[in-house]
Amino acid sequence: MSSWVLRRQLLRMGRAAAWAAEAGRVRFFALFAATFVVTVALAGFALAVASFDGRTERSADRWAQIARPASGEEAELLWLPTIARSEDRQYDVVYVEPLSADAPLPPGVSHWPEPGEVLVSPALKNSDVGAGEFGRVVGTIDPGGLEAPGEYFAYVRPTADLLSSKEMIKVSGFHSGLEQMPPLGEHLYTLGFTEFLWLYATLIGLPAVLFVVIAARVGAAARDRRTAVLATLGASSGARRWFAVGEAALPVAFGGILAMASIAPVLVVDVPLPVVDFVLYAPDARTVTAQLAMAALGAPVAVVAAVVLLQPAYKPGGSTRPALRRRRGEWMLWLFPVALFGTVRGGDFLPLELRLSALAAGSIVTLALLPGVVGAVVAAAGPAMARAGAARGRAGLLIAGRRLAAGPRPVTRLVAALVIAIGLAGQGQIMVSLFTEMTQRADSMASRLGTSALKVTATTPTSPARVGSFQRELGAGMRVLPLWIRPDKGRIDIVADCADLKSLKIPCKTTPVDIRAAENGGLNRAIEMENASGTRVFARTGHAEKVISETSRPSFLVLADDGRQLSISAARKAANTELAMANTVHVFGMNGIGGGGAPLIAERWLELLSLSGISVIAVVAGIGAMSQFIRAGGEMSPVSVISGNRKVYYTVSAWSILTPALVAVLAAVVVSWSITTPLPASEGSRMETLATVGAAGFVCAAVMALWGARTAAAAAAAWRPSGG
Amino acid sequence: MTPPTALPVLDVSDIAYSVADRALLSGAGLSLPSGSSASVMGPSGSGKSTLLMCLLGLIRPMAGTITIAGTDITGLSAKALTAHRRKHMGMVFQFGELLPELTPVENVMLAALLSGEAADAARDRAESLLAELNVSTSAATGALSGGERQRVAVARALVNEPTVLLADEPTGSLDSEQREAVANLLFAMPRSHGCALVVVTHDAGVAARADVQLRLVDGRLIRVEGLR
Known about the structure:
Largest sheet of chain B: 6 strands, mixed
CATH class of chain B: Alpha Beta
Strand order of the largest sheet of chain B: 6-7-8-3-9-10
Helix content of chain B: 25-40%
Oligomer: heterodimer
Structural class of chain B: alpha/beta
CATH topology of chain B: Rossmann fold
Number of helices of chain A: 20
Distance between the termini of chain A: 35 Å
Largest interface: A-B, 35 and 48 residues
Radius of gyration of chain A: 33 Å
């Protein structure tokens, strides 16, 4: 038989074996799903790189070229980037004023808006954030002029009245040619490339690799027996590999094809990602078409390689009888305490910039080693369990103990999934809690302060006349009081007319009066908060105009006579219309806390990635449990059917799955607690997170044990003696 | 040793069972007193396994009765059938179907434990049976030869002192020497343990040891040779 004919024969035999195995469907599904996941994970990585590259390129393209008249670069337009805040994020608003009719347009813009008009990104236009606060919205910016299609961004052309030419930068055009990211755009408020890669590697890469390793071995006992038969017939190691390839080829091919079919649309249309409010830009995706094709081919090849490499080596002369498996890699167990100590305390010996990376890498290694430790502990406990079961007449304990002692690997695979799921969920949720704590602090402060006292800051100069217009625009019963802020002296002075001060029940004197309380509830709480942070609030009368004119960025306290809650959006719109070209508005006392954007966006990415990773692991754990019980059910069927005892499946399940799973959950929680010690999350928050994740792990383990027992009992019910 | 009695402990009368249009059993009958044995031969697909499943109560015949230890099992509820099977039936499988992780003693006592026996009694009986069947209890099950595994399987089938012992190709996976040893041992059981034995086999040499030799032909059990 020629080698090619033999290979085809071996491939066909392998394919047939894939279906005939005892856990054939589970194995087929495991290989199929693992290939799908790893292909999507690799493609996702390529797309992430493409998105970051595309973002860098477009961000550089829209950054302005400063005019250098000396070099012949005349100013074509005036340009001023500012930062705007909405409730949940920061974004950029760029003020532009063309100096000639043919001034170069920014990327993504087809025409200059008229004075008082605004061009916004589609995402900003469709959001609840009031794009109209900056002027009349007359169009949108094309995705080519945005870092990503979902970016919040606006170009504002100020009215002639508000135009602050002196504050604006004279530029000759766009496409700065910067190689690094300019300080403008969405990238400032979201995860950086390195942070993202670590998260992706931990939350997506690790589960995907775990899936491949487990799928390569899950339900492989029948295939291993066939391979052993081939070996006894004289098959070479190469022939056995071809047989293994044939067994894995079909599910792996299906998984790869489905993955690419799922990913292919990103090459054609912009695809919004769930949870994160991010749109994957098709032109970016097209730049990595070759890498996507490589992922589509490489991932299935890698899965097949894992299947081939992870099959047990044939030992000529060894017994064909079932025997205790040799324990391998015990030396690896000793790495665990080293990795744990290194992760928890290693940062102390490293430079600050390396600590986060070291912590992330150490956490991955520690979590990856933990299942082996749990498996070894469980295997060591097996004989004692069996002895106790035999002595007390507990059949379930006896069988489980012997099984765990003889072959802990299936259980190790199962607990590996649990340990890594808990580890990732714990890490992810603790990182989320860091952001949530910040957001919650800001939210709680905002809700305590209310909106009855606002601080409006003109980021471009204004005048007393404009302040008057601003007050009129706000409506009757509103007061706008200039603030003289001196952070270096830790004080804020409210400078106002006696009528204004008296309306607030504040003494009216020309010398500053230290105010400890005010009748307006919001102002009163803001004063308390400023005092608590070491800033004292004073009030005095006189020279409000001087304060306004002499301050480059004058700030104002805005409140209503009746102390009612005010609309921040309305105040922002009034300020942008009457006070100055660019303004910021927030609750007095908040001092820019909250609305930072980055925590929220990072939290959403963490949620998406950890949810995806944990979903993968849940599937892995389910597959592990299912295959384990199909096998266990098959082996125990004859004796359980004759004795009519189905309860034994539940007791075996409780001892061989639930107990190791509970040990794994406890170990994972304790280890997660240790490796998250260096994170700046509070102990209470870590405790709460890990308790929740641990409880979820317990429930998951209980469900798996019950499901497994039911599966085995059902398999036993269908069992019939074989023969003629 | 329980002396054989004349009353049948297994009485199969005119049972019928079909799959699709094919009649696997059609008026099959068999009657065995305790202490006696029967062998059933027949080509593959002739219905031997179906007969065993009917005797175990895993499938219900479409007609006829199967009386084991004085109770017609065809009319029993599932729960009563399970209890009856546990009390009166034992079975030896072609490949032993032992749990390789357990020791021989544990494999045997497991069947007793699953039937609700106390641990000490189950262990004593298992050890005694294995000693009687000359199986080493010090070796791991996984290290036993095929013949030794089948002897452990016989011990397991006997541990609950069944009224009827069934064996499905018990020597099918053994070499000639082991086959002889296991067959000798198995056919000695009815007299030494006072049970009835039904052996399904392809091996004429094994079948010839039975008190009653039957062949399953066209769904009926045809006696090949008279009672010895």
